[in-house]
TrEMBL record:
One of its GO terms (cellular component) is endoplasmic reticulum. It holds the Pfam family PI31_Prot_N. Its main location: cytoplasm. This is Proteasome inhibitor PI31 subunit. It comes from Coregonus suidteri. One of its GO terms (biological process) is proteasome-mediated ubiquitin-dependent protein catabolic process. Belongs to the proteasome inhibitor PI31 family.
Length: 270
């Protein structure tokens, strides 16, 4: 702790309580971090000068300590206050440049031997722990820089398109795409072809499904052979379109004598 002994020796005669010892130690940690003390009190004075020493009257009040500091490069100013609450000191630091506020609570008896206030070699305890708390909790620190994410070429292209066009939709890349087999629009029978070729004889499909050609199971019926009891053989030309008008391969029976008419079938008002 180079420099602390010299500082403490210079103010030892004015130290009258353990709180003074803690304030002296915190002041030295602030100086080591690149700051100088301007004076005591909230308001700056015309005769303020940067110094590593504690100013005159720095411990005039044992209930509230107020010290002002300025960085060595003159870019940062902050105000430190230490309030005595029972056996603890509550430090509060406000950086006037960034408006950041930090605080530290110190249990005085953990770091000061109250019986050795005038002896530098014996007055301090656990100095390393107290120094670490001052640096990590009280002193202002610059925010860590954000890590930049390196974008791929595709991400850069997509971002530039989306930024330039608010209606841009990201491009999708399907694995496969199957085009429908549309007829050639310039073909002579493209328009109305299904009407001219209902069974799709030229290919491409027609508009009528022929049960004898559609690939469905056939019943074995040949209309050119005629229908027994209905059409003689040769009545239907081979290959002609024929819609059967009765059950194929069976003779439609007449009325069954057992069929009884419904009651009142001859009633004209029924």
């Amino acid at each position: 702790m180079a420099g602390l002994e010299l500082l403490y020796s210079g103010v030892a005669s004015s130290i009258t309580c353990p709180q003074d010892v803690v304030v002296c130690f915190v002041h030295w940690e602030i100086v080591k971090s690149g700051y100088k003390c301007l004076g005591s009190g909230d308001e700056p004075l015309s005769g303020d000068k940067k110094s590593e020493l504690l100013p005159t009257g720095w411990n005039g009040s044992k209930e509230l300590y107020t010290l002002r500091y300025k960085s060595n490069d003159d870019k940062s100013h902050f105000l430190v206050k230490a309030i005595t609450v029972d056996s603890t000191l509550i430090f509060n630091l406000m950086d006037s440049t960034t408006e950041q506020v930090s605080d530290l609570t110190v249990n005085v008896s953990d770091y000061v031997d109250a019986e050795q206030l005038q002896t530098f070699e014996s007055v301090f305890k656990n100095t390393e722990d107290l120094a670490q708390k001052v640096k990590s909790q009280l002193l202002p620190s610059a925010p860590a820089p954000r890590k930049k994410h390196k974008k791929s070429k595709r991400e850069t292209t997509d971002d530039s398109q989306s930024d330039s066009d608010p209606l841009h939709i990201p491009t999708r890349h399907p694995q496969t795409s199957r085009q429908p087999n549309w007829p050639d629009p310039m073909a002579p029978f493209a328009a109305g072809g299904a009407d001219l070729d209902p069974f799709g004889g030229r290919g491409g499909g027609g508009m009528i499904v022929d049960p004898l050609r559609a690939g469905y199971p056939r019943s074995g019926f040949d209309p050119s052979g005629g229908l027994p009891g209905v059409l003689p053989p040769g009545a239907v030309p081979p290959g002609a379109r024929f819609d059967p008008f009765g059950p194929v391969g069976r003779h439609r029976p007449g009325p069954d004598p057992d069929h009884m008419p419904p009651p009142g079938y001859d009633d004209m008002f029924m």
